[in-house]
Amino acid sequence: MRIKYIFVVVLILVSFSLKAQNVSVRAWIDTNNVLIGDQLKLTLEARSDKKTNIVLPIVPDTIGKIEVLNRSKIDTLDSNGIYSIQQKFIITSFDSGWHPIPSFVVMYAKKGMPDLYPLSTDTLYLKFNTVPVDTAQAIKDIKPPLDEPISWEEYLLYFIIGIAVIGLAFLAYYLWKRYKKKKEVPMEYDPKIPPHIIALESLRQLDSEKLLQKGKVKLYHIRLTEIIRLYIERRYLIPALEMITPDIIQGMNESAIDEELISFMKKVFETADLVKFAKFQPLPDENTLVMNYAVDFVNRSIPVQEDVPKLEEGSGQ
């Protein structure tokens, strides 16, 4: 009975040997002793002397502690009737020590065979070494940083940024000079002439220039408020030329100016502020009204002069 079983096993082995005749599989790598993180090429190959149905195994992304980074397409080569099927893999590991690559099982079937039969490769062993550390030396990179060349697109970007910075600097300088020049040019007047005389004449001159008819509404209101600011500054000693509207109104309140006159000036200054900063377009009647308010304010705030008594004849004085 035992002889019978031995005979059956021998027949099976002989059958597999005959079927696998002229069919071979193997796997190999470039080297088996590298540093951790190094990349190696693993090649899996099956060879046959005639066209044979060969099925290579599907290799997973990780084999134990070994990582498969890339896999090529399956190539078929024909050399004098010997067919070779190859697939290549790029592998690495970030764990030190010996790591096995188990055998790969390749399935094949020759012409006339109804089933696929297996063939296995040998097991491979890879050793990944750590980088030796000399504690007596300073810590440094394994490799120095690489200098990346600057492309012409980067040069162009730097050039455009430089031109933009220079342009903004010139614009800022121009605006600063213009603002400074505007601030440094005071309204010309003769200090010997009473403030109300200069203010009324300036308002009359402004009205005669017909700025509103020319569409220069903003300039009209700027000129009007400058005339009134100068008058307030000279008449009440309030630095109105350097103050904003709320501060001017507060200063007028503190100077005990008539409330109705203050309300006139508040309307004039607020309308001018809207025109200058909010792009407000007053109605024609409003433009006329602020001019009337300004004229009325000057006329009603003229200081009262006391009459000087005349000397009588023969008084001897």
Short descriptors:
single chain, 317 residues, alpha+beta, Immunoglobulin-like, 6-stranded antiparallel β-sheet, 3-stranded mixed β-sheet, 7 helices, rod-shaped
Commentary on this structure:
With 317 residues, the chain is an alpha+beta fold. It folds into two domains: 2-129, Immunoglobulin-like; 186-300. Helices cover 41% and strands 21% of the residues. The protein has helices spanning 2-19, 152-184, 195-208, 217-236, 245-254, 259-277, 284-300, and strands spanning 23-29, 33-35, 40-48, 53-55, 62-63, 66-71, 75-79, 82-92, 97-101, 105-109, 117-120, 124-129. Strands 1, 3, 5, 6, 7 and 8 form a six-stranded antiparallel β-sheet that branches. Helix 4 (217-236) runs antiparallel to helix 6 and helix 5 runs antiparallel to helix 6. It is rod-shaped, with a radius of gyration of 51 Å. The protein starts with a helix and ends in a 17-residue tail after the last helix. The model is unreliable at 7-20 and 306-317 (pLDDT under 50).
